[in-house]
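ok here's the first one, seq then struct tokens
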Amino acid sequence: MQPRTTQLLPLSPLIALARAQLNVQMRNWRYTAATLFTPMFLLVLFKLTMGTGAASMTPFLVGFGVMYSGQTLGLILITWRTNRVFTRFAATPAPISHLLFATVIVQLIVFLLQSILLLITGILLYNMQIAATDLPMILAILSIGCLTFLGFGALIAAFASKPDTFSLIYVFTLLPMIFLGGSVFAIPGLGEIGRWLPTTLLTHTLNPYFGFGEVDSGQIAGNLAALLVYSGIFTAIAVRFFQTGE
């Protein structure tokens, strides 16, 4: 009788890689704590300095966490390229795409967890009334936003050779989009240009679910479609130009 062999499902390596990366990230508790709680600290700081007027900053700060997800992913990709992780991983049966997809999944989980903590903090600090039925939509918006900025981080990582260079480029492209695009306050003269920046699209899509404006299904659908287009463009360029080895 021939011995029975166990056939692994196609997704088994992907799930195993995602689980392993999540375990490693959770064990690095200092980094994880800083990632999860820095935006919460800002939310509390705004509450102490601005009082109840800071409530309007809650949608932006909830989105702010996922805006920075791309920085984490980009630093991971550049570090792996520098340490020739991709070259060594190519010798394993699993394709490199599994490693990349697993990394994206882990970042989505971490930054969605951060967003949930921010939601709870905002509700407690400002007694915000968020309908339970709106929570799935808020998480869906944040997931799409996270994919957009993960793609943005991968795009920059495709052209930046060092982590320090990457961080500078990421920060000094993200901050102008945040402060000039209308995520925090409107800048006269930018008009439609500022409205279609990904940072502004994410913040304005979240605003109605936090009680700042009316829910317009058509506009929300348009904003999410634009974010998905950004995500597709960023990712396509990153895939085209990212080099896995030096």
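and now the second one, same deal
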Amino acid sequence: MAKYVGVKCPVCSRRFSQADDIVVCPVCGAPHHRACYTQAGECAWAADHINGREWQPEARPAEEGRESGPNGTGCAEGTRLCPACGAANPVESLFCQICGRHMLSCRSSYTGGATYYPFGDPFGGVDKNETLNGLPVSDVMYYVGQGSSYYIPRFYNLEKRGGKIAFNASAFLFHFLYFFYRKMYLFGALLLLVFAAGLVPQFLLAREYAPELLYAMGLGPQATVNEEAVVFYAELANIAMWAGIGVRIAIGCTATRIYYKKVVREAAELIGRARPDDEDYHAELIASGGVDRLSVSLLVAVLVVCFFLASGAIMPAI
């Protein structure tokens, strides 16, 4: 019941601890001490069930925790508060057990809307005392950020067990976008060029077919199609399609290893510039790694614009 540690019981108003026996209302989800629930005989919010009220974690301002915690930190002995959602966690936790955010400080700044960490173990089952190519697994976890529970076991397999291939479905499906998402911009740019080159035969084929297609739809004058050009471009488009599939397979088979090399290289460079026991070092790991949603969003927007421009470029052919 780590999810409810630090939350107030609606009956007695005492905060739950790891050792408490907690029961949850099956209607609204409100947690209670078992003794409190038994004594009350029903949920503390039973009167509101008819209105569809559902329990939500309370927003606890930082000042409330500072008044009760040791040294004004707001943390009970052996615990610390998540800087994102305010939940109490064991002091050794690297990620919040409730929202999954990095536990970099004991300050609480709960703003609501926590995103729950889907796996619970940010190391993906690998011992947190392990090392990968000389790097502590915890450093790799900080650098990878989102998806660390997926990547760390695969990195471990590549490094410790001599694995050759760790197929990456995301890289296979999303091609160059995956590399931009994981901040591997050079690979992403090269694959973007390969992707664009593979579309050229289809663009040329569309230009040859467009006049006849529009004439058949009654939207343009009668036109003659260059059959030799159509056949040539169709063959090129077919070759490009199969080559593209081959590239995707190759990307899916090598992307995880490429990403692992990037993680090791850049984390090692950070160690050379900062002390690993410094909190700023972990913050820099997080900032340098993680994912880049903004560049992916901008790239998708640019691709949409290019699609419409290419469509417009076909029209003069009629």
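notes on #2: The chain has two domains: 2-90, 135-317. The two ends are 68 Å apart (CA to CA).
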